[in-house]
Design goal:
The protein is an alpha+beta fold. Helices cover 25% and strands 23% of the residues. The chain has one domain (57-203): tt1808, chain A (Alpha-Beta Complex). The chain contains 5 helices and 12 strands. Strands 3-6-7-8-9-10 form a 6-stranded mixed beta sheet. Strands 1-2 form a two-stranded antiparallel sheet. It has a two-stranded antiparallel sheet with strand order 4-5.
Length: 204
């Protein structure tokens, strides 16, 4: 009789980490983790710290689908300029962090300038436009730090949408953050001409 080794290549373990302990991975290790755990929403900081984001609840999922849907409709109606991406798409920023904004867009000039290697599993680029939607598990401070990171790495416009406080924070390079209280809409300005997001569909 011939015996075959049926031991699985990976093993599932439950591990609770105190907040003071951080797991660090290389970019190659992160790519391997992401490819073998597609159900997880993983990110990596510029220092290599692994971030595991929990699945979103139905309210956040509903709101995020509306934001991504409106961005897609703008892109299609505008003649499909550049590329639009939803929340599961990761990007390697110039500072080395791997981030996955809830919605994003990259201009055609910058996307077409990337080599096939730069368009690998995670494209080596920071989107021109990013959206972060705060969920119940997100702290406002952590999202604000992430938004500043996007701008520092090349984003031209960013929205931090916070349903808990009904605010929209607008991030632009070289300018102070603009905080809008219970806005009915936000504009893509000259970065995404003609794109206006009706936030009444997000607040509800």
């Amino acid at each position: 009789m011939v015996r075959t080794n049926t031991k699985p290549e990976t093993e599932t373990l439950s591990l609770n980490l105190p907040k003071k302990i951080r797991l660090h991975v290389t970019q190659e290790q992160f790519t391997d983790l992401a490819s073998t755990n597609p159900e997880l929403r993983l990110e990596r900081t510029a220092k290599g710290e692994l971030i595991v984001n929990p699945p979103t609840g139905w309210e956040t999922g509903k709101r995020n689908s509306r934001i991504s849907g409106e961005l897609y409709l703008w892109w299609r109606n505008a003649g499909e300029p550049g590329e639009v991406f939803e929340s599961s798409t990761g990007f390697i920023l110039p500072n080395g962090a791997t981030r996955a904004p809830d919605a994003s867009w990259i201009s055609p000039e910058r996307w077409d300038a990337l080599t096939p290697e730069q368009k690998g599993t995670f494209a080596n680029i920071c989107p021109d436009f990013v959206v972060e939607l705060r969920s119940d598990s997100d702290t406002l401070k952590s999202l604000q730090e992430k938004m500043r990171e996007y701008v520092d790495n090349g984003a031209k416009l960013g929205w931090l949408i916070d349903p808990q406080n009904r605010t929209a924070e607008i991030y632009r390079p070289g300018l102070e953050v603009e905080v809008l209280s219970s806005p009915a809409e936000v504009s893509g300005e000259d970065v995404l001409p003609g794109f206006v997001l009706d936030l009444r569909r997000v607040w509800s």
